[in-house]
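Inverse folding, one chain.
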């Protein structure tokens, strides 16, 4: 375990590369893909003064952005369309990719690494930011259509 891992005492972060972690144990996750996910990460950074909690970026495929939230915080709650929830429940298991803090982790990287074992993205703030982001895009789209 490297010095950074010991410093924050987060045992679910791999020492090297990346690994899949079962959602619902140490954390749940919410993923938003592509540019919208990156804009959401920017918004969360602004709302929290630069420390939204752990966020993982994926460089290929869907270019997902994974927001790690407290375990159990995504199940049985309504989330806006455009997000994917990762959690566990009866007959349901999800896995979340988690990169090491340093070294070769492509296609994953930390946008915001964990700062403490029990520090996660605040689910209510995240859900509000998603709703705001998606509502803003709908407004811009409607405005463009009505201008023609």
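Residues assigned per position:
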């Amino acid at each position: 375990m490297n010095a950074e891992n010991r410093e924050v005492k987060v045992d679910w972060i791999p020492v090297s590369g990346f690994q899949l972690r079962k959602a619902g144990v140490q954390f749940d996750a919410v993923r938003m893909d592509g540019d919208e996910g990156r804009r959401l990460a920017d918004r969360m950074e602004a709302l929290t003064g630069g420390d939204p909690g752990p966020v993982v970026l994926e460089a290929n495929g869907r270019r997902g952005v994974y927001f790690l939230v407290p375990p159990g915080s995504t199940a049985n709650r309504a989330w806006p369309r455009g997000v994917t929830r990762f959690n566990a429940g009866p007959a349901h298991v999800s896995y979340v990719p988690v990169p090491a803090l340093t070294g070769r982790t492509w296609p994953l990287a930390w946008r915001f690494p964990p700062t403490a074992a029990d520090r996660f993205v605040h689910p209510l703030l995240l859900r509000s930011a998603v709703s705001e982001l998606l509502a803003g895009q709908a407004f811009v789209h409607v405005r463009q259509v009505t201008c023609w």
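Residues 3-147 form one domain. Confidence is low (pLDDT under 50) at residues 1-6, 138-148.
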